[in-house]
Amino acid sequence: MSAAIDAKAYAAVDLGASSGRVMVGRVGADRLELTEAHRFPNRPVRTPDGLRWDLLALYAGVLDGLRAAGPVDSVGVDSWAVDHGLLDADGVLLGNPVHYRDARTEGVPEQVWATLPAGELYAATGLQYAPFNTLYQLVAARGTAQFAAARRLLLIPDLLTYWLTGEQGTELTNASTTQLIDPRTRDWSREVADRLGIDLGLFAPLRRPGDAAGLLRPAVLEETGLAGPVPVTAVGSHDTASAVAAVPASGERFAYICTGTWSLAGLELTAPVLTEESRAANFTNELGLDGTVRYLRNIMGLWLLQECVRAWGDPDLGELLPAAARVPALRSVVDAGDAAFLAPGRMPERIAEACRASGQPVPETPAEVTRCILDSLALAHRAAVEEAQRLAGHPVDVVHVVGGGTRNALLCQLTADACGLPVVAGPTEAAALGNVLVQARAHGLVGDLAGMRRLVARTQSLTRYEPRGGTHRWRAAGDRLADR
Fold first, then answer.
1. For residue 44, which phi and psi values (nearest 5 degrees)?
2. Dist. CA 344–CA 393, nearest whole Å
3. Could you tell me which of 240, 100, 95, 230 has the C-alpha nearest to residue 159?
4. HSE of 423 in the Cβ direction (CA atoms, 13 Å)?
5. Are 292 and 394 in contact (CB under 8 A)?
């Protein structure tokens, strides 16, 4: 491979629930380097109308990041799922997008199920129940002046791509989180939309990862100082899809846990699991690269610790985590998937209340609360990995942990202990790496999904955690939690 090809650079716009970043990836035959061009906060704003994303600030951060990135051969955008912006007939945004933690969907799922029972909805879409799914948000928006004026709906990464390029599209991996996609056909479920009165004409045409998504507009080139033409490439625009693409696995017998504000724990399959048992266990079938299905469960994740740390005045994690490691294991645990922990505020008190209500010792110090959270997350990881294997008939030999939680060595070790399986932690910036690799593949620099993963394994720093002791204590703790 020539030096010119080896030097190609790709900008990954990677937006998380608490921060955004623009990363630059350089890709070659045995080269995959990622550097941070710009990082910026993502601070939702509570307005009189509810909780909103400050999308203008995020877009400004993206432009600042592209300016800092310097010359690149392509740009790709990924973000969190389900949320969206509404555009009027002129393509103008009708207001800051609603945050998925907003309360507007309370009671809406029950309204939907009265028309389309939950079992039938799952059989058609394979999507887990979450009160903030796009489907429920659309039903909640009915009757509002804003929704009446809407002529286009763009999911968050598609909206930013539209502002960058002037081109509209709906990327498939993120569309699969709307609860309006049939995971078998990988297309819209017109039956679901028709029965619920949802106009699929609101959505722009579907794109797949690797599709061309336009060129940076002249005004964007001027603002960022980039020399055009600069193509924008559709990537796995749901950040979990990009992260799973960068899991450094060999073969098929692996589970993954994408850690950060959420923990997404599950398997990569070739077909969805649409059984009633799967629905009852609240597993989702989201779409990944190359015809794959991300069969996983959403767990509240490090949001629990992030909210506690915020309440405690941002103590040093370098001191807090070692202190938590000294707290006796599994003294108290909570259900890390409980919707009671979804909203922000008073997280230490809410965890203490949950322990008190279940008759467990109440954690009092920050170290005790932190240990309760990490034990609870590891227990939830164990349950998800075990149940996914059983429901899908897909055994695994190793658990890959990617994302921000890889920095938390205690959580990684506890996950290995709980699952009774080795944990391979890394890469930390998996979503950005997956974003970059899809762009590089679209431009002929890397091969198939297995080849992408081999490149990650060869070039990125990984840490292996072996399970300690048996899993009987974790099984007992899980039984204790299930009995409450």
1. -60, 155
2. 37
3. 95
4. 31
5. no
Rounded distance between C-alpha atoms, residue 116 and residue 107, angstroms: 15
Q: pLDDT digit string (tens) for 320-361?
A: 999 999 999 999 999 998 988 988 999 999 999 999 999 999
Told to judge if 239 belongs to the known catalytic residues of this protein, a careful annotator would answer yes
CA dihedral 217, 223, 226, 227 (to 10 degrees): 60
pTM: 0.94
Q: Which two tokens stand for residue 159?
A: 């909206």
% of the chain residues with pLDDT over 70: 98
Using the Cα atoms of residue 408, residue 177, residue 281 and residue 256 in order, give the sign of their dihedral.
negative
Q: What token pair was written down for 265?
A: 């724990």
In 214-338, where does DSSP find H-type helix? 218-224, 239-245, 276-280, 303-311, 317-325
Instruction: Name beta bridge partners: 460.
Output: none
Which of the residues 73, 78, 239, 417 is marked catalytic?
239
Query: Contact at 8 Å (CB) between 164 and 232?
Result: yes
Q: What count of Cα atoms within 13 Å lies in the side-chain half-sphere of residue 318?
A: 0
Q: Which residue has the tokens 């429901």?
A: 391
> What's the pLDDT at 2?
42
Adjacent-strand bridge partners of 215? 231
CA–CA separation, 107 and 91 (whole Å): 31
Q: Which two tokens stand for residue 114?
A: 């009265």
